[in-house]
Amino acid sequence: MILTTLRQQTICLLVEELYEKNADDFRQMSSAQIVVKTLLDNPSSVRSKFQAKQLHAQIIKHEKNNPIHLTAVLSIYSNFELLHESLNLFNILHSRSSLAWKSIIRCYTSHGLSLLSVSSFIQMRVSGIYPDHNVFPSVLKSCTLLKSLRLGESIHGCIIRLGLDFDLYTGNALMNMYSKLEDLHRNCETRIQPATVSDEIPQRKLGNVCRTNLSSTSTSYDVAHEFERRMAGISPTVSLNPTISHKTQYVGEIVDQFGGISRGEMPSREASKVFQSSMNKVFEMMPTRDLVSWNTVIAGNAQNGMYEEALTMVRDMGNANLKPDSFTVSSVLPIFAEYADIGKGREIHGYAIRHSFDSDLYLGSSMIDIYAKCTRVDAAYRLFCLLSYRDSVSWNSMIAGCVQNGLFDDGLRLFREMLAAKVQPGYVSFSSIIPACAYLTTLHLGKQLHAQILRCGLDKNAFVASSLVDMYAKCGYIKIARCIFDEMELRDMVSWTAMIMGYALHGHAHDALSLFQKMKIEGVKPNYVAFVAILTACSHAGLVDEAQDYFDKMVHDYGISPGLEHYAAVADLLGRVGRLKEAYDFISSMPAPTGSVWSTLLAGCRVHKNIEMAEKVAEQLFKVDPENMGAYVLLSNIYSGAKRWRDAAKVRIAMKNKGMKKKPACSWIEMKKKVHAFVAGDKSHPDYDRINDALEVLLEQMEREGYVPDTSEVLHDVEEELKRSLLSSHSERLAIGFGLISTPPGTTIRVTKNIRVCTDCHTAVKFISKIVGREIIVRDNSRFHHFRDGKCSCGDYW
DNA sequence: CTAGGGTTAG
Questions:
Q1: What's the CA–C1' distance between A137 and B1, in Å?
Q2: What are the DYW domain coordinates in residue numbering (predicted)?
Q3: Fewer Cβ within 10 Å of end Cβ, chain A: N or C?
Q4: CA-to-CA dists, residue A6 to A34, A56, A97, A478, A609, angstroms
């Protein structure tokens, strides 16, 4: 008995119910036929793929391949996203009904086969079948996936001509298409070519709309209408369906209505205000709107930077008696994340809890992000732990949250945990984690990640490539950084900035300047950070005039108001070249000078041994930042350098009284995929004795060549002899010593230090580089020092 | 037919 084979209680009930109603009709039928008819009349009652196949089998057995029944099965297969089964059926159908086409198109779309979906739609039109409102959502989704606005516009034209633009689902799909594609295309000067449609399909090409007749403020919506007008002039391969001609008339009125709004009749000054996205136009025209309509238009506005509009619409939703759901909320949360508005974030979190969708994965990822952006990594991590299921986005949010808050080791640990959880890292994962390697100078990890990126084929992604450029530059491999930069297909402003900053850090100012020029020639507009990079490059190379020029251009030509970093770079530069008075006046002209800006000038005073200016600067500095320890150290060094021991001592006593302790200096070096870290006077390393022996031999030779230890920066009040031994046990020297004994002659040594290199070590390393005939690269907290043949790339100013 | 995460910073 088939009923028992199908084994579905609800179906039995349905059959019984129908049997009651149509008892006469059913009397002639076999029980198998009854079941088949019941299921075909109620396709949604088929609950599993297995049942669908059983039904198919029964039809073959009892109905002799009745095409209507087979089409119904095809539709059911397509509901279950069974592509192969659907295709097999579709291919044996000789005459394909509207339902058959709709089913196969939907199936292609659900499998991401967008091109096949769209070309089937065209074939369907060619074969004389009229599309109905069920087919457009799928076709439009495919246009969206193909990123082809033109195709979407053409389809929209079709929809208008068939009078289907008032359909709810079609309208929703249209808004989604426009929200994803219109902004994308507006930002491109040349519109992306429409996807080429497979050659096998012999029909006119869609998407050949020429925009020359349209004003610059016309939108895709207008183009769709224009397309329809043109189509009306071309003899169509398919004759118009007479039942919908009155609708076409009506559409004509709407075309004119829109034409009036956006055909450039308003003054061009108002163009940006007048411009209304096609998405919003569709939304306004919709006769009925459901929750999905609101969510789509809110998300669209939020993603296109129209924050006010998006938030207003959330309020308007309430007037339409619709409650924000998890979709609404996770569309607007990124707005508050951008403003790091933890208050609004908590409010929404509370709303989600009250409406019991707080365990939603999308909401969870957004909440992790917003807590992390408000530096509440602990709260973010608690939320992350509470998620019952974690996808790549929730992992990425958590990893990025750690890295952006300086928790690099935690970020790396989570990245490994993600891999262990069998979640594939994508380009977002890599661009989130690579900065951790850049900050930590852990090149071996960076290289492993780079290898994985190449294996996944993600190396062309601009975000990933930019982070790699930065990572290699920060690990001292400026040439590799440049290679990756040159290999990039699309360079955005961030890629250029990363490369320029790389050159700046390495003191290659002229490379930085020429790149900045090239960037502008290629039409990439520099932003705040790009100017930080170029000013830093000038500052590290003493290019005063160029820096002042860039500073002025930034303010006047680009309308960027200078920030702390810009002031600091220029002040640093003026100080560096000895124009201390100018620097002083420049900083005084700032809206609110900070301790860090003043202390760059203090460093300039140290280099140029100007004590009066140093005291003036220090006075200003301690007014705004009395706890700036670096400034105390600098000032004390300045006094010591001028042999004003008494004043130097006073400063040190003041530091002591304030309970200030120097940040422990630490240097590290990578050796055979392992990081070896050293602090001053550190004897814990297993090779300590060998390192010490090597450094002693070197010290003797250095002194023969004229090295005199500069003990003026030793803050401890101890005997001169002890001071000298303290100097030679500084962390960078231990790390360099370890590098020398662990690598073959001639190998470049790369060391990273967490604070500024001291004056004496800087001199010492210059001697060492000459004696051992090696390049020694030291990265301190602000830049790279390339020591080679007794000289340093920083020109002794840092 | 609708939603979340990413690169540059004296």
A1: 6
A2: 706-798
A3: N
A4: 13, 12, 28, 68, 95
pLDDT tens readout for residues A259-268: 222 222 333 3
Q: Tokens 């669908």 label which residue?
A: A52
A697-738 tens-digit pLDDT: 999 999 999 898 887 766 566 677 777 777 878 899 999 999
| Nearest nucleic acid nucleotide to A335, CA to C1' distance | B4
Average pLDDT of chain A?
84
**Dihedral pair phi/psi, residue A660, rounded to 5°:** -85, 140
The dihedral of CA A701, A703, A706, A712: what is its sign?
positive
Q: What SS3 class is residue A260?
A: helix
Q: Which nucleotide is nearest to A603 (CA to C1')?
A: B10
- The alpha carbon of A722 is separated from its chain's Cα centroid by a whole number of angstroms, namely 52
Q: Write out which nucleotides of chain B lie closer than 7 A to a protein Cβ.
A: 1-10
Q: What is the residue-wise DSSP string for A91-151?
A: HH-SS--HHHHHHHHHHHHHTT-HHHHHHHHHHHHHTTPPP-TTTHHHHHHHHHHTT-HHH
Per the model's pLDDT, the better-predicted residue between A663 and A776 turns out to be A776
Instruction: Answer positive or negative: Cα dihedral of A153, A159, A163, A164.
Output: negative
Using the C1' atom of nucleotide B1, identify the protein residue whose alpha carbon is closest.
A173
Residue closest to sugar C1' of B9 by CA: A529
The Cα A145–Cα A117 span in angstroms is 11
Asked if A540 and A509 count as a contact pair (C-beta separation under 8 A), the reply is yes
A289 has pLDDT over 80 = yes
Which nucleotide, over all strands, has the C1' atom closest to the CA of A369? Answer: B5
Instruction: Give CA–CA dist A731/A736, Å, rounded.
Output: 9
Q: Do residues A132 and A98 lie in contact, with contact meaning Cβ atoms separated by under 8 Å?
A: yes
Q: Are A159 and A132 in contact (CB under 8 A)?
A: no
* Å separating the CA of residue A321 from the C1' of nucleotide B4: 25
Task: Please give the protein residue whose CA is closest to the C1' of the nucleotide B3.
Answer: A327
Task: Work out the percent of chain A whose per-residue pLDDT is above 90.
Answer: 64
Point out the nucleotide closest to A782 (alpha carbon to C1′): B10
Q: What is the pLDDT of residue A259?
A: 25
